[in-house]
Amino acid sequence: MTAPEATGATRPASVPPRRRTARRIPRPSEIRQLVQLDPISPRPATNRLRRALTVEDLREAARRRVPRSVFEFVDGGAEDELTMRRTREAFERVEFRPTVLNGASEVDITTSLFGRPSALPLVLGPTGFCRLSHHEGERAVARAAALGGIPFALTTMGTVSIEDVAAVGGPDADRWFQLYIMRDRGLTAELVQRAKTAGYSVLVVTVDTPVTGQRRKDVRNGFSVPPKLTPRTLLDISRRPEWWINLLTTEPLVFATVPAGEPEAHARFIDGVFDPSATFADLAQVRAAWDGPLVVKGIQTVEDAYRALDAGADGVVLSSHGGRQLDRSPVALEVLPRVADELGDRLEILLDSGVRTGADIAAAVALGAKACLVGRPYLYGLMAGGEAGVRKVIDIYAAELRRSLHLLGLPSVAALGPGAVRLR
Q1: Which of 209, 279, 352, 409 is in the most buried spot, having the most CB atoms within 10 Å?
Q2: Which of the following is catalytic: 134, 266, 321, 406?
């Protein structure tokens, strides 16, 4: 039989008749409560940063703030950029295994790195030419890291000197120094001593750069430091006058730590300074000269992690150099579980390359890393808003990590373990 509703049959007696909603004129006070206008700052950078919810948002803001060649120098990778893509694809394969009703009303995202406290398991890693991204460069990054309570690693190829960065951030700032083993062993030893004298706490030796990887975007863009004035750059000046004014009216852009070379031919300069013949015996000599924690950055196999341990390392960074050196190199996140399983009780294991969210940090820590290093993300923030942009990046990672722990049902970073995550 056809249902009564379908035939338009009479409504059952138990259902009351429909009444129209009464209308009224709202009071002005009620309308005022609904009007929510975002505050507008006279500083465009403040407005940009307020709108940014993710590192990707800051990346897009950065793209619009600096010349194309500068953005792609930071954003690009080696050769076909396969390693870059595979690195992000690995993080996209992460699947969390949350638990529920664990009663964790608060979560603790703090950790310790080499005996010093850190507000979260994050390090602002070493990146070259920071002053290309923003005229304050490494000074802005160091201040932001100190305010955020996390370490900052200054690179040998920095545009602000070891001593000038050491003067930023106050006595409690956790400063790391990143070293390349150079052809001039006397210069290598001198840099170690300067870092020690200036109060840097951790020495990070990068070992995956015997020569510079081919970054095709840089070649095609005619990337140089400082940028040459060509018809393309002259057009760029009209589009980004603030960046160019800051570049031209502040101290010259040079390598501030190593002897002055030809920064405009940076790849050739680097290939002439770094020593491709360096061995683990040279690393052992650095170990003998440095009495603090020693970290080897650029480890990509379990076997080399063992060799770093034998040479005296206290920690390793599993890294593909952000996909900027050897294309088709191993993906750090995929190497991590085995290295952690075999050496996690003897080395502090860190990871970089492709870490874009606080959830990525949670996944890496669950798989065995003590912390993650990032490079491009804080440079995006630096391009978008200077020091405040770098602080925004730190805040984004912290908020995302805290939220991930809440949703995983875990009370702290220390509670993260293999049971919380798997790679699909």
Answers
A1: 352
A2: 321
